[in-house]
Design goal:
By secondary structure, this protein is an all-alpha fold. It has one domain. α2 packs antiparallel against α5. Keywords: Membrane, Transmembrane, Transmembrane helix.
């Protein structure tokens, strides 16, 4: 695969993205779904909730590369539009993750009661993504149909892909049964495809491996520098 994001990035994203979403979903499953309980859990279990929300946010970002890879394999206009819808929905979930992070900071500095009151007062505020919320669910249904029509996925795995549209949307959402169904379905749909993409081609050259290994500490250093502001 010579097109962006490439076989290795695309295949890895198809495997890792759904797994990260499932991990984040399961980590916050012990706590009640609605935001007051999520904020209380952030105060009582900060490490666990940080891990849960971080894994879920990372999964949405990684899934962006997975969706581009899948849309390219569909190679039809419907797949293009489905990819656009799903990507916009993932952008919106990443926006929600920023709000979740801000709320977590409020809990840490001012306590869950203050954070709950502030979130409740501003929960219905309109913003750009308020008008695009339909993409979070609708995009997965269109993408699943396009994947089935193109033959990239069979009936069962297309239905599994469509189940990603069952994931609740909005800020500070916990886990419910549909959350687990959606993320497990996403894993069932995309992980086997990711493995196939990774295996479908020659092994990387020694030069490519050495470049990748050398880039790891550089990326790590840039990540540390980024935290400085």
């Amino acid at each position: 695969m010579n097109t962006f994001p490439g076989r290795w990035v695309g295949g890895t994203a198809l495997v890792l993205g759904p797994v990260l979403l499932l991990l984040g979903t399961l980590l916050r499953s012990p706590f009640h779904f609605f935001f007051p309980d999520q904020l209380r859990a952030m105060a009582e279990h900060p490490g666990l909730m940080t891990a849960a929300y971080t894994a879920f946010a990372a999964g949405n970002v990684v899934l962006g590369f997975a969706v581009v890879t899948l849309a390219q394999r569909i190679a039809r206009p419907l797949g293009v539009w489905a990819g656009v819808f799903v990507l916009v929905g993932l952008f919106e979930r990443t926006f929600h993750a920023g709000v979740d992070q801000a709320a977590q900071g409020l809990v840490r500095r001012h306590g869950p009661q203050f954070a709950t009151e502030l979130v409740a007062a501003s929960y219905g505020d309109l913003h750009l993504f308020s008008y695009l919320s339909f993409t979070i669910m609708f995009g997965w249904y269109v993408l699943a149909f396009a994947a089935y029509r193109s033959g990239v996925l069979g009936v069962a795995r297309s239905l599994c892909l469509a189940s990603a549209g069952l994931l609740p949307l909005g800020v500070l959402k916990g886990t419910e049964l549909l959350s687990i169904v959606g993320t497990v379905g996403l894993c069932a749909a995309l992980v086997p495809l990711g493995v196939r993409v990774l295996l479908d081609g020659p092994r990387p050259s020694r030069r490519a491996v050495l470049l990748a290994v050398g880039a790891v500490p550089l990326v790590g250093a840039l990540a540390l520098v980024s935290t400085a502001g």
